[in-house]
Amino acid sequence: MAKNILVTGGAGYIGSHTAKALARAGYRPVTYDNLVYGHRHAVQWGPFVEGDILDTAKLEQVIRDEAIEAIVHFAAFAYVGESVTKPEIYFHNNVMGSLSILDAMRATGVKQIVFSSTCATYGMPDRMPITEETLQRPINPYGETKLMIERALHWYGPAHGIRSVSLRYFNACGADPEGQIGEEHDPETHLIPLILDAASGRRAAIDVYGTDYPTPDGTAIRDYIHVQDLADAHVKALAYLFDGGETTQLNLGTGTGNSVREVIDAVERVTGCKVPRREVGRRAGDPPELVANPAKANQLLGWKPVMSDIDSIIRTAWAWHQRGK
Ligand SMILES: NC(=O)c1ccc[n+]([C@@H]2O[C@H](COP(=O)([O-])OP(=O)(O)OC[C@H]3O[C@@H](n4cnc5c(N)ncnc54)[C@H](O)[C@@H]3O)[C@@H](O)[C@H]2O)c1
Ligand SMILES: O=c1ccn([C@@H]2O[C@H](COP(=O)(O)OP(=O)(O)O[C@H]3O[C@H](CO)[C@H](O)[C@H](O)[C@H]3O)[C@@H](O)[C@H]2O)c(=O)[nH]1
């Protein structure tokens, strides 16, 4: 019998790709999402329950009705800029919402959870690449809310026998290689979909945030990781927990960074379209460079990115972008 997995935020970008990967691996994903940012049409693998993670009673009901054995928890607000101006909604949704899930787990006896964390928990580290031992010092409320839940998970282990894997994603990007789902944030703030908008003429130009960083070409460097590789890591993290694995935290990145200029150039190369660019000032709170050391995820889960070369990322994202025309 397929194991039933509750996927909170499964109507969103990374959650829907993970639901597909879970189904392919023989699990039965049950998506739980309030559709505040998610899309009903992105839920194509397994049943959908419309609900809020703050509603603990409803979570308990679904966990019992669907005989849930583990939770993959994506549901959160994830706009860094907004988190600075409205921290209250981030602490409420991301922290209280996650604690509500942990309450429902304690009430129903579910012992395993995979949690969406982020490289934003590291803040502005001065040494690259980032290992899991790099000091976590978030510089915005969004990163702070994720770190708080990592810490809660640390303490819920010994107290309640809840084992967890916190996956610290670097920059998620790309789309389902079969074109069934893709990145559909509204509003969109992420670099690659905005560059594709500029390439296709949906927006006038891409704003390059800062050209005076201490990097080889002056623009900021990030570690871009394909959403399909992220989805695969969740499947492996679940298997690790089902095998009795202990609570842990893992970086999910490639180990290689690309600058904003390099990404724009790659889009021009892959799409054959000119990308008008406008050089503007730095965006507040953006670190110059964030690159993962993914060795721990490789060792513990046997996980290795296979789709995350910049051309595959842009090719799949572009195919999805073109469909939406
Ligand atoms: N996209 C990235 O680059 C990135 C990087 C690091 C971490 N993350 C984290 O990964 C997770 C998924 O990110 P994403 O890009 O897929 O975002 P997304 O907005 O596409 O998906 C989040 C989903 O959660 C749902 N949701 C939000 N609050 C909810 C609530 N209270 N109850 C029920 N559902 C709720 C939304 O409707 C949405 O479908 C988030 O936790 C985010 O913080 C994302
Ligand atoms: O129009 C844009 C958008 C972005 N950038 C630059 O492109 C890079 C990537 O920016 P994104 O907004 O795509 O992503 P971030 O690096 O800001 O990602 C952060 O926010 C995400 C939340 O959506 C994740 O949590 C992630 O882990 C966290 O580092 C940054 O250097 C940014 O300055 C631009 O130059 N122009």
Overview of the structural elements:
It catalyses: UDP-alpha-D-glucose = UDP-alpha-D-galactose. Pathway: Carbohydrate metabolism; galactose metabolism. The model has no long low-confidence stretch (mean pLDDT 97). Strand 5, helix 5 (141-160) and strand 6 form a beta-alpha-beta unit. The radius of gyration is 19 Å and the shape is globular. It has 325 residues and is α/β, with parallel strands linked by helices. The strands form four sheets. The protein has a seven-stranded parallel beta sheet with strand order 3-2-1-4-5-6-11, with helices on both faces. Strands 12-9-14 form a three-stranded mixed beta sheet. The chain is built from ten helices and 14 strands. Helix content is 40%, strand content 18%. The longest helix is centred in the N-terminal third of the chain and has 22 residues, at 87-108. It binds nicotinamide-adenine-dinucleotide and galactose-uridine-5'-diphosphate. Residues 8-9, 11-15, 33-38, 52-54, 74-76, 78, 93, 97, 116, 118, 169, 171-172, 185 line the site of nicotinamide-adenine-dinucleotide.
